[in-house]
Backbone:
């Protein structure tokens, strides 16, 4: 297959867009002009017909990379594989690992995003025919600017007005249907860094980009994700670290009442590690001893994995 190219109007890559990409293992030129700006017909056909674009029929992973290496790559690939089993997608090929490592290599701190879809439609309509060939896109983004005060002092969060639907068949998956989160993030409109989400039945689930932990009486609690929500890799890392340190962790049904009485609240995701919550709406919190201990426990993993 020939090298793919995607044009920007000026030839330069705008801030916060990917700076390198692979489409099914082939290099995609993101900064180009003239003849290089043409996408070969084969690639264009794949993208135009792709079921990920039409129906959100696929999965994604966002992988933090430090020192030129992807962090917690085994956990990310395992989650992607579980998602493929659930959605009955063909398993990701072995070379995907090498493609992720290739984009991470030499980049210092970066984010690598993997899109993995059922592939181009071979017939019209929602139902897959079974002969589709998956599309995989691997992109590298620059590490976004960070404010060290978020980890040190904590962040203020809101509670979204939008409520999540419950669908156990999709629960836990990092699938491409993210409209609920798009709308919830739009509610913030610069008024905060994160919004917490409940379901229509009142179950506390997560943030828009993060998983959520509460502390009651020294006990660590996190919402069960068997009805909706994403089972985050950093959530798994934190639960593993807590268990190894002898901290009790319980996945349980939580509501806003539990949030209102929690002594400590913190957020996790693959990039940020742990952010303490210093305020929920107008309620002020202080980062506590459990949160600080877990931050210390996972810090070596964030630097060396």
Residues:
């Amino acid at each position: 297959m020939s090298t793919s190219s995607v044009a920007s109007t000026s030839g330069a890559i705008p801030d916060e867009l990917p700076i390198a990409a692979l489409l099914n293992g082939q290099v995609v030129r993101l900064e180009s002009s003239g003849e290089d700006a043409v996408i070969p017909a084969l690639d264009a056909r794949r993208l135009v017909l792709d079921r990920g674009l039409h129906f959100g029929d696929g999965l994604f992973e966002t992988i933090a990379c430090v020192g030129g290496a992807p962090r917690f790559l085994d956990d990310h690939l395992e989650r992607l594989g579980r998602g493929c089993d659930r959605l009955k997608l063909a398993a990701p090929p072995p070379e995907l690992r090498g493609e992720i490592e290739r984009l991470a290599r030499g980049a210092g701190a970066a984010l690598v995003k993997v899109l993995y879809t059922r592939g181009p439609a071979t017939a019209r309509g929602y139902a897959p025919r079974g002969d589709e060939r998956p599309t995989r896109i691997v992109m590298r983004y620059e590490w976004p600017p960070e404010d060290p005060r978020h980890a040190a002092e904590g962040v203020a969060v809101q509670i979204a007005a939008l409520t999540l639907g419950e669908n156990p068949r999709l629960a836990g998956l990092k699938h491409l249907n993210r409209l609920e989160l798009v709308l919830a993030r739009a509610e913030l409109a610069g008024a905060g860094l994160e919004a917490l989400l409940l379901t229509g039945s009142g179950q506390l689930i997560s943030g828009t980009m993060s998983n959520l932990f509460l502390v009651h009486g020294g006990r660590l609690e996190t919402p069960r994700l068997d009805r909706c929500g994403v089972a985050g890799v950093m959530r798994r890392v934190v639960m593993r670290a807590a268990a190894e340190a002898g901290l009790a962790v319980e996945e349980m049904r939580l509501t806003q009442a539990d949030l209102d009485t929690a002594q400590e609240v913190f957020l996790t995701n693959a990039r940020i590690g742990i952010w303490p919550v210093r305020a929920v709406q107008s309620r002020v919190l202080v980062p506590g001893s459990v949160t600080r201990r877990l931050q210390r426990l996972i810090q070596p993993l964030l630097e060396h994995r």
Summary: Confidence is low (pLDDT under 50) at residues 1-11, 32-38. Residues 289-304 form the longest helix (16 residues). The radius of gyration is 20 Å. The domain at 4-142 is CATH 3.30.470.10 (D-amino Acid Aminotransferase; Chain A, domain 1).
